[in-house]
């Protein structure tokens, strides 16, 4: 009986570690599990993925050139030939909306990339070193935050000149302070953890501690802020294009399409309606996904 009992206990022992390993999940896997349970976030993600696929394969979904002028077809209402109608130059609105998705998504991603590349190192340095370095960086960010984001972007693009590239730079620069403040606050909290003290005791350089030990542990809030920042960047860039300071004609950018169609709202409502709906759907999906990511990465929610 004792041998049988010991054999039974030995046969059960290997199962426990495996079960424990399956129960232990990485933070990102836990966040992904929570995100899958958020139906609104999943639908928003599906909409964005579908939009990216359609934007990437835009020539496959329309037979019209988005910049080709056809005066005989000008200001045609939505029909079987032009499902979203045409503008004052006879250009197909549907084709311009599809190709405009490429530009708007590119603007959002590039602008957020500029803000992240510039803001993350500044936030790391300010939070890690503190003192005068921290004070100087924070005061500079406070100065930038004294201006509304759209006003700061307007000032920058006015200096650089109206173009799509300059509007992306302007939107990216105007979003730097939010990244700096987020990273700085996260670093101030994270650098007091035991593993950072252990890295210092082992003789790790300060750059190694910042980029290999602190930065990976503050990625979650950066992902959430970036997802929400893309929506803000798309809106800001569309506003600049609407004012004539962003994408220039005949570029099929949604904000520029709104600006070009405002003079024809009484006779050709479709010129502003469809690009406006495209902006609304994209920004709404981005915001819903960002909220879902925020909830998914919040450890207080649990499983």
Describe the structure concisely for a colleague.
This protein is mostly helical. The chain contains 15 helices and no strands.
Could you give me the name of the CATH homologous superfamily?
MetI-like
* CATH class type: Mainly Alpha
Architecture (CATH level 2) name: Orthogonal Bundle
Described by the principal axes of the CA atoms, the overall outline is elongated
Number of helices: 15
Number of distinct beta strands: 0
Give the overall pLDDT as a whole number: 86
Largest sheet geometry: none
Seen as an oligomer or otherwise, the chain set is: single chain
What is the alpha-carbon Rg in Å?
A: 25 Å
Strand content: under 5%
What structural category arises from helix and sheet content? Answer: mainly alpha
Order of helices and strands: HHHHHHHHHHHHHHH
CATH topology: MetI-like fold
Task: Please report the distance between the alpha carbons of the first and last residues.
Answer: 42 Å
Low-confidence stretches: 6-24
- Percentage of residues in helical conformation: over 70%
What is the number of independent domains?
1
List keywords for this structure.
mainly alpha, elongated, 303 residues, MetI-like fold
Please, could you describe this protein's structure?
This protein has 303 residues and is mainly α. It has a single domain (39-57, 84-297), classed as MetI-like fold. Helix content is 73%, strand content 0%. It has 15 helices and no strands. It has helices spanning 2-12, 15-23, 27-37, 39-56, 58-61, 93-129, 131-145, 149-160, 164-174, 176-190, 194-201, 206-214, 219-242, 254-261, 270-297. α6 (93-129) packs parallel to α10 (176-190), α6 packs parallel to α15 (270-297) and α8 (149-160) crosses α9 (164-174). The longest helix is centred in the middle third of the chain and has 37 residues, at 93-129. It is elongated and about 75 Å long. Residues 6-24 have low confidence and may be disordered.
